[in-house]
Design brief:
Length: about 180
Amino acid sequence: MPSIKGQNILILGGTSGIGFAIATLALQQNVNVAIASSNSTRVDAAVKTLKTSFPDGKIEGYVCDLGTSDVESSLDHLLMNVTSDGTALLDHIISTAGRAPDAKPLAETSFEKLADAGRAGFTVPLVIAKIGVRYLKKSPKSSLIFTGGQVAEKPIANYTLYSTMAAGLIGMTRNLALDMAP
């Protein structure tokens, strides 16, 4: 695998779980890391922990709530800050943002829950791609990464809503690879 030393990455959802693990591994490789989350307390705590573990590492934290109605402007504002107004483009944008699903039978799921899940699981990743491409280096080495789960391939009872989002995300990323090719 080629070295990623010195590259610039943004991890949406980088304060815990997979996102935090990615930040840790990236800092081990001397990557310039920016993490973002909707909760300022979690951002501050994660940055503090990472700076303690990697005192010479380049780590910055940002607050960005992808659950707001103005997600496009929030994301654009975040990316402008992370990239110094577009002058320091990113090599990678990684989205691990999301919340654990509330699994229950589809028949018991309200329309509002269906719409919210579709927004978080499908529409927001599309917006990340739409806005993010302007802040990514145009290179075959750059990437836009979305994390998901195996539920698209291995069904779980009462996960119909989330398996739908996961399967849609797979199709979306395949087509984005064509659309975003340098």
